[in-house]
Write a structure and sequence with these properties.
Length: about 60
């Protein structure tokens, strides 16, 4: 599916376990922050030249 290891977590938490929910969210948030940005999910944007920006046209492959 393209999701890096460590970015997906399942946990069963009852609605009566508010404290557990808070702990799990904090733990997962810390783990994901340590992983940094999800490089597999970031789309590369076309690099635009100054000329293409000023004329309103996209770089090669774009509509313009």
């Amino acid at each position: 599916m393209g999701i890096e290891e460590g970015r997906l977590h399942f946990s069963w938490i009852s609605s009566a376990e508010a404290g557990k929910f808070v702990d799990v969210v904090k733990e997962i948030t810390d783990q994901v922050r340590q992983l940094g940005p999800a490089s597999k999910l970031i789309k590369e944007l076309p690099i635009l030249s100054d000329e293409s920006v000023s004329s309103g046209k996209m770089a090669a492959g774009g509509a313009g």
